[in-house]
Design brief:
Immunoglobulin-like; globular; alpha+beta; about 625 residues; 6-stranded mixed sheet; 9 helices
Length: about 625
């Protein structure tokens, strides 16, 4: 009997080991398959709230390090606020992942495009020193990544810290979900010096207008004949990709709010919290508040500023602001965060419109449903679409602009109706149209390397609009040689608001106003140059003007455009080809140029005006 038992145990062991191994292998395969399915986008989801809380154990004084990411871009259907809509997402999650790094780090992002349309990623606000070809701007620094293709972005983040973001630069694709935040940490000693109000927790807050229809169909409607620049009105807004619509108000939409809720921010009642707001939307300006809270504004577009106490924050598309929130005394525990779209700029009444989206600030966890009873501020909400009043803001790190500019560029921003009743945006007499297959950067550098006579001749221009290589009616390019200081005087002849963004730089805001700029502004005289605000996105208000100054010292081709996505697609864009003398000696990497030879790079591009020739309706 004992021998028989031993034999049974041995037999069972011999049989069970392979069975257990096989079972484990099957379970592993199933787990891997599920992970692959997730990566391929079979289970789209909203990003977890904690994903946008910065690392509390971050080592500020290590590095530089390499931060590597693997992104699969694919199409999905998701209901961020209850309403199902088609979206284009990174790793099947909305919004995109946080890139958290330190100044000096190398960022490596492997992008695999499994979507129907071509794509690109622009790293908004990053200088790209020495890596202009990684800026991600279609028709300027690269061709799109075609469907089924992959591309790796690789660059260093140097010479800057603060809050930034990334988004697709292919037509209006960002509005379909391809957006996400970037935070660059300074050294610990610098962080303490630059941020004058102490805080213990650090979080990112994305605000965005939210459309229920694909951007491609909305873009066709917007650009068609007879539309007269009536921008598509967003029916909703989201905070960190979340909202909560009443489905009974939307009978014509596929809507379900199961497992949907307002964005929830659990904050400590014992210490301050930094909230980094980014407007990642296509069109709407937001006015943001936390009921019964005054907060300190401490950062503007990556530039740390001396604190200013406010209780309502206006933020335009592409802009970033950091605020420091102090727990109130007494503390009610629950408060509404309200993000209201400034609807005064909207061109028409949208029947599905819900102009306000809310988040919840919670200071103490509770088992009760988190429904704040906090009070709204009594003042009337903003009705004008223009920048937050930043005239009193001064950067902590003082950096005065050069006393005089070498060049003054006067740009008239307008919308004009031309042939076939097409309304288009113009800077002076130029309405931008991207050449998807021939980016400006490659066109210029390749021509120089091939010793093309016209390209070599263009190098003889020390500065000015390069009308020799580029057609100024569709591609307005200002070229410089050597280091030059440039003033841009923007004047708006339109009733819309235009948040203009300059790639590769921050600029000084020297003056702004309404109507016609005074003579001293036009001459660049009598300006306060002691320590003006620096940023990379400043709004040109309705029938207003703004004077900005920057130093053109970053070799490359840099877009300067309205970051209202619809206006950019309508033509409000130009380029700066800087340090042509240096750029002529550089070569675009083969893997960047190779993108242009792939079939399908035109998929998802904005419509060409020629499709409407001869059509009135």
């Amino acid at each position: 009997m004992p021998k028989l038992r031993k034999k049974n145990w041995f037999t069972i062991l011999v049989i069970s080991v392979p069975v257990v191994w096989l079972l484990g292998f099957v379970l592993h395969i199933l787990w891997v398959s599920r992970k692959i399915d997730d990566n391929l986008g079979t289970s789209p989801q909203l990003r977890a709230e904690e994903d946008y809380i910065l690392d509390s154990t971050w080592n500020f004084d290590t590095g530089p390090n390499t931060r590597e990411y693997h992104w699969i871009i694919a199409e999905h259907e998701l209901n961020p606020d209850g309403v199902y809509r088609p979206m284009t997402l990174i790793n099947a999650t909305f919004p995109g992942p946080l890139i958290e790094c330190s100044e000096g780090d190398e960022i490596v992002v492997h992008v695999q495009n499994k979507a129907t349309n071509a794509t690109s990623i622009h790293w908004h606000g990053l200088f790209q020193n020495g890596s202009n070809y990684m800026d991600g701007t279609i028709g300027i620094t690269q061709c799109p990544i075609a469907p089924g293709q992959s591309f790796t972005y690789r660059f260093n983040v140097s010479g800057q810290t603060g809050t930034y973001w990334y988004h697709s630069h292919m037509a209006m694709q960002a509005s379909d979900g391809l957006v996400g935040p970037i935070v660059i940490h300074p050294r610990r000693s610098e962080e303490i010096a630059l941020q004058e109000v102490r805080y213990m927790e650090d979080r990112v807050v994305l605000v965005s207008d939210h459309y229920y229809d694909l951007s491609s169909s909305l873009l066709i409607q917007y650009l068609q004949p007879g539309n007269e620049n009536d921008e598509p009105v967003p029916p909703a807004a989201v905070i960190n990709g979340r909202g909560l619509r009443d489905c009974s108000d939307l009978p014509n939409r596929n809507c379900s709010t199961t497992d949907r809720s307002n964005a929830l921010f659990d904050l400590s009642s014992e210490h301050n919290t930094r909230l980094r707001f980014i407007n990642v939307g296509a069109f709407a300006e937001f006015q943001i508040q936390i009921d019964e809270h005054e907060f300190q504004l401490t950062e503007v577009d990556g530039v740390d500023v001396h604190p200013q106490a406010i209780h309502r924050l206006n933020i335009n598309p592409a802009q970033r602001y950091s605020i420091i929130v102090t727990p109130p005394t007494p503390n009610k525990g629950l408060y509404w965060m309200r993000a209201r779209m400034v609807t005064h700029c909207f061109a028409y009444e949208e029947p599905e419109l819900s102009e306000e989206v809310r988040g919840i600030i919670r200071y103490a966890p509770t088992s009760e449903p988190p429904i704040p009873q906090s009070k709204d501020w009594p003042e009337v909400i903003e009705v004008e679409c223009k920048d937050l009043n930043t005239s009193a803001l001064a950067p902590v790190k003082e950096l005065a602009p050069p006393e005089k500019a070498d060049d003054l560029i006067y740009l008239r921003s307008s919308f004009q109706i031309g042939d076939w009743r097409l309304s288009r945006g113009f800077l002076n007499d130029s309405s931008y149209r991207a050449s998807i297959s021939h980016p400006t950067l490659s066109t210029f550098t390749t021509g120089i390397q091939e010793k093309s006579d016209k390209h070599l001749y263009s190098l003889s221009m020390p500065y000015g609009f390069n009308t020799y290589l580029f057609d100024p009616s569709t591609t307005l390019v200002y070229q410089t040689t050597g280091v030059r200081t440039i003033d841009i005087l923007l004047q708006n002849f339109d009733d819309g608001n235009h948040p203009f963004h300059l790639h590769g730089h921050t600029f000084w805001i020297l003056a702004a106003g309404h109507g016609y700029p005074p003579e001293n502004v036009r001459k660049g005289e009598g300006l306060d140059l002691r320590n003006p605000l620096r940023r990379d996105t400043a709004s040109l208000e309705s029938y207003g003007w703004v004077l900005i100054r920057f130093v053109a010292d970053n070799p490359g081709v840099w877009a300067f455009h309205c970051h209202n996505g619809w206006h950019n697609e309508a033509g409000l864009s130009m380029q700066f080809l800087e340090r042509a003398d240096v750029l002529a000696k550089r070569k675009v990497p083969e893997e960047v140029d190779a993108l242009c030879a792939v079939e399908g790079i035109e998929k998802g591009a904005g419509p060409d005006d020629s499709i409407w020739v001869g059509k009135w309706d």
